Amino acid sequence: MATRQLTETGSLRHLIRLKGLDRAFITRLLDQAEAYQTPMGEPPARDQVLKGRTVANLFFEPSTRTRASFELAAKRLSADVLNLDVNMSSRIKGESLIDTIYTLQAMQVDIFVVRDAGAGIPDFITANVHPHVSVLNAGESNISHPTQGLLDLLTIRQNKNTLDGLVVTVIGDIAHSRVTRSLSEGLAIMGRNELRLVSPEGLEPDMDLYPGVRFSRDIDAALKGADVIMALRIQRERIKEQSSLLTNPEYLQRYGLTESRVQLAKPDVIVMHPGPMNRDVEIAGAVADGPHSVITQQVNNGLAVRMAVLAAVMESRQS
Ligand code: CP
After folding, report:
1. Ligand 1 pocket: which of 57, 64, 299 to mutate (most atoms <8 Å of CB)?
2. Contact between 190 and 23 (Cβ < 8 Å)
3. Ligand 1 closest atom vs CA 138
4. How is the beta sheet containing 167-171 ordered, strand by strand?
5. Which residues contact 87 (CB under 8 A, 6 or more apart)?
6. Ligand 1 atom nearest to CA at 62
7. How far does the centroid of ligand 1 lie from the alpha carbon of residue 62, in Å?
8. Class for the domain spanning 146-294
9. pLDDT in tens, 12-29
10. pTM, whole model, 2 decimals?
11. Do the domains at 23-142+300-318 and 146-294 have one common CATH topology?
12. Rounded-to-integer distance, Cα 114 and Cα 134, Å
């Protein structure tokens, strides 16, 4: 059963997916994230809102951006932060996930931040923790990555001054992309946007998961008139049989985001990538570092969005 994410008074208790949240709620989260941003070179914003609270980061899949930014976000909000080293934990000795959760809950953890390859794990944890404990989904299988969706919305809003009426083209391994699922949910909530998905054979999504969205194999056609382009890496760790397509040294020219392809989009197009990035595979290095790229802005926004989400969860304790 899908987790109820909001309390009866409309405060955020858990964040498992963007679907089910409304435009006003997401707008408030994005506004709060922006309020936490300071110019590069100045000290980062700090707040006492999580003082005396404990946040546990449980990453059962690798991560750089999400794990580091949740840790920094919690520390900047004055929480005690536990980063469980999964490979040195008792899960290696056979302890189940839920017994790991119960163990840490007994140490008065208030918020679990969880990344796991298994579908349904965040909902499973929310169904088993104490009512005062919150769960934040930091990446669930190929299903959901809600804070990535929020940081992508914030990045688009900052560059386009709107989240309505945009053409957004996503290129690459969409079959395995929780980033695209959350972006799709977010764009549908925020406005009447056109999402175009394009991927090579073997990496196409189940379009039942994307109602009203256009799929194409023609990259150049899908880029025409785009306001936003998102490039995705091939998630080799989720693919059992590596086809010659995926090991093809010509992948960039055939399926990747090159400088000449960016020219097909609108002149003020922004280029996004959730990371980690494989330069000169799904995206040319010159595009990643080029004038349209907002990839480092996405990372900066990720920290601010995670601060906003953590602070919102604390609000639910007061209501
Ligand atoms: N975008 C993203 O989730 O990156 P990490 O895997 O490095 O956290």
Report:
1. 64
2. yes
3. 3
4. 214-216, 194-198, 167-171, 228-231, 270-272
5. none
6. 6
7. 8
8. alpha beta
9. 999 999 999 999 999 999
10. 0.96
11. yes
12. 11
Please tell me the predicted confidence (pLDDT) of residue 2: 81
Q: Identify the residue whose C-alpha is closest to ligand 1 atom 3.
A: 66
Test site for ligand 1: of 65, 70, 145, most ligand atoms within 8 A of the Cβ = 65
How do 167-171 and 80-83 pair as beta strands? unpaired
Cα 275 to middle of ligand 1, angstroms = 6
For ligand 1, mutation pick of 57, 58, 63, 71 (most atoms within 8 Å of CB): 63
pLDDT reading at 319 higher than 60 = no
Percentage of the chain modeled with pLDDT above 90: 88
Mean pLDDT of 49-61: 97
**Ligand 1 site, CB within 6 A:** 63-66, 139, 148, 274-276
Distance 306 CA to ligand 1 centre (A): 13
The CATH number of domain 23-142+300-318, selected from 3.40.50.1370, 3.10.129.10, 3.90.650.10, 2.60.40.10: 3.40.50.1370
Question: What are the residue ranges spanned by the domains of the chain?
Answer: 23-142+300-318, 146-294
